[in-house]
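Q: Structure for this?
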Amino acid sequence: MKKRFLTLLAVLCIVCCLTAPALAADTYIMDDADLLSNEEEQTLLSDCMEAETTYACGVYIVTVEDFTVYGSNDPYEAATKLYTQYDLGVGENRDGILLMLSMAERDYSVVTHGYYANAVFDNSTLDEICSGFLSQFRFDDWYNGFASFTEDCLAELRVYEINQKNYYGEDYQSYYNPGTLSLDERLLHMPESYWLVVLLVPPVIALVVVLIMKRGMRTAGIATRAGAYIPKGGVDLRVRQDAYTHTTTRVIHHESNHGSGGGGGGFSGRSGKF
Amino acid sequence: MATQVTNYQCPSCMAPLHFVGESGRLECDYCESTYTVAEIEALYADANNKAAQEELSADAQAQYHDQWGEDAKNMRAYSCPSCGAELICDVTTAATSCPYCGNPTIVPGQFAGTRKPDYVIPFQLSKEDAVDALRKHCKGKPLLPKAFKSEHHIQELKGVYVPFWLFDGEADADVTFTATRTHSHRRGDDEIINTQHFRVRRAGTVRYKGVPVDGSSKMPDDYMDAIEPYDYEELKPFAMAYLPGFLADKFDVSADSSFARAKARMGNSALDSMAETVFGYETCIPVSQHTQVKNTNTCYVLMPVWMLSTRWKGKNYLFAMNGQTGKIVGELPVSWGRFWGWFFGLTAGIGAALLAILLGSM
């Protein structure tokens, strides 16, 4: 009996050991379009796991046949839905970066989420990362494209950590988690644009309000209208002409790339064709 | 020789009578008798006619001309029937009170012949209502100096029947607008915006009934305009018995001169009326507009106005209250300390709220 139990336990351990990497791979790489082999996934996985364990920032890859099945005509929106649906991200702010490929129309989208991830992957950084993987995807070189993505992400996280440690010290990540920051610290790191809003908008609103109040101190004024003295049925409309003359057309081109915000804790990123 | 005026006296005790808006009757403060307007009008009809005739002849003016020079043109002298004192009044004064015996005094000649008002709206609100309205008017004014409410003194409070012209008219308006409707749709990354342009024309006639313009140069036009409107349902055929107890002036701005103001108001409102019939467009801009206003009828009416003058820190503040509806207008002093206090307080409050929102969003 004891021997049988130990055997069962050993089998369970082996099964767990074998399936754990596969489960972990599913967490970081969701290859529904089947672009990667299992070996390739395992190789990419090491970068993803290092990003999470060392830098507290998730790096994710999702491939789909057609992103429109996620209820959006915009690849960026679809990627944000996937990020939320799979509950991706690390820590309280769900920091992470996701690359989504949709094969039907060759669309891609990169979205970042969380204060820390948005700060690391700003506009210029995303440009570099995108140009790296796009140059591979154009030749349908999926593995090298994804490898470029995960390696570039990891490299950016490394560089950012070095810079931040030099500036803020070892505890630099707490600045990207507002819940852990004191009021003084948050004020210290408030963007300049926020300070401009705080300093300029209130006096303008206050001035408008007090001028309205001052105007209310004088209630006399010359009447310019006599609408109150039009009796019921006093308007006799004789001519009512509405003539169409012409149509003008204006086209506004919207770049499908979504500019990276970088300042807030929500989503930012970009999308396009590969 | 002074011209004739009439004191409305109580038939029972000969004390002065005055019109009370709340009861709509003439009342005697001494024996508490009350009389309808019709009763007193019938009683004083002969006396008023006689006084009016004398006023129209106005030969008494000549003797003052020598003594007062050019000023005499704007003055009239009357003899108070109660105490015999000589009253020197403005040429337009139609009702006043004797400064010696305090009796309400009417100058019937001011309303004789073609100058007689067609209608009058009797006072419906009392002196106490006017004081109360001023107190309420001062409430809820954050910029009003705190001391004003307690330190200001009502220098003068008088009920005045102000002469108004009521103009009926028709305004022909013809307006052309350019209007647009916009539709947009997306094609790939492009947003296509189609703007349809229309030429819209509206023409018609707008009728007006009783656009008021005050016919007294002494009354500030902005105050008289601001206390509008009056309820014309309460218009009564003119009778001098409504005047005792109040001041009254006859008009000194003619109907023709006053019509210019009514005409401008009618024209503007006619254009508004045309514009209101244009809908279903996103933009609508008038490109040409023509109005032609004609006067179809004019009435001469006396309207009840309470004029309140207060003095505070050496400056007079004037208020006017509609004696029928109680609407009060005027100018209140501004405390610059409060002005800047509110400015900096609001700036700090809004700034703190904005800061909290922005910090929360970080």
